[in-house]
Amino acid sequence: MTERRPLFWMWPVEQDWSPNTVILFSQLIILRGKLKRMGFRHFDGVDGSLRMLEGAKKTGLYKQLMHCMLGQDRIPVKAETYDVVIIVGALSVGQVPLKVIRELWDATKPGGYVCMTTRANTDNQKYKAELEQMIKALEEEQKWRSVAVVEVEEWERGVSELDTGYIPGAVYLYQKGFL
Ligand SMILES: C[S@@+](CC[C@H](N)C(=O)[O-])C[C@H]1O[C@@H](n2cnc3c(N)ncnc32)[C@H](O)[C@@H]1O
Question: What is the CATH number of the domain that holds 118?
Fold first, then answer.
């Protein structure tokens, strides 16, 4: 059987992580278990932070970890390599620029899935709207189709002074077409 290669863009981080990533970590554990039950065995990871990559290495989960500042450098993978591409916690203002969405699409096999998340608190509203425009543009080019879009009221714990308690967010799941 051909080994499937889901590409993970998220890490279980070191022990001193901030409260918002604790929530994402529990999501990661659930998701990882689900993906393993579905037959996925090969996990690779990319991050712009060497510290995050060190934490990821300690988990023993990843076969390959790649250091890349998305938006500055091209993602160091061949086109159409992965069945699943997931980016969590990094698509927001000041982090990963939107032009990277096309690179995520490029790294995905035809018929594969791209899962993206963003936050929907006040300081990320403009980025979220532009992200949705970018996603729609690829849909209009028939590069992918929408599988699910979920707005989550209590997505993660807010860390900015403008936020109290949990902030909203959104998850976008798209399937790459066979062109
Ligand atoms: C809030 S953390 C999320 C970590 C993890 N995905 C999770 O869900 O727990 C954001 C991550 O995005 C990475 N990041 C932000 N901008 C990036 C960029 N332009 N290129 C690569 N990584 C970036 C940071 O280094 C950090 O590891």
Answer: 3.40.50.150
Q: What's the gap in Å between 110 CA and the centre of ligand 1?
A: 26
Q: Is there a domain that residue 2 lies in?
A: no
Counted domains in the chain: 1
Tell me the pLDDT tens digit for each residue of 74-133: 988 889 988 888 888 889 999 999 999 999 999 988 988 888 889 999 999 999 999 999
81 touches ligand 1 (CB under 6 Å): no
CA 69 to centroid of ligand 1, rounded, Å: 10
Of 66, 70, 74, which is closest to residue 11 (Cα–Cα)?
A: 66
Is 150 part of a structural domain of the chain?
yes
State the residue range of the domain holding 66.
7-176
| Whether residue 95 has its Cβ less than 6 Å from ligand 1 | yes
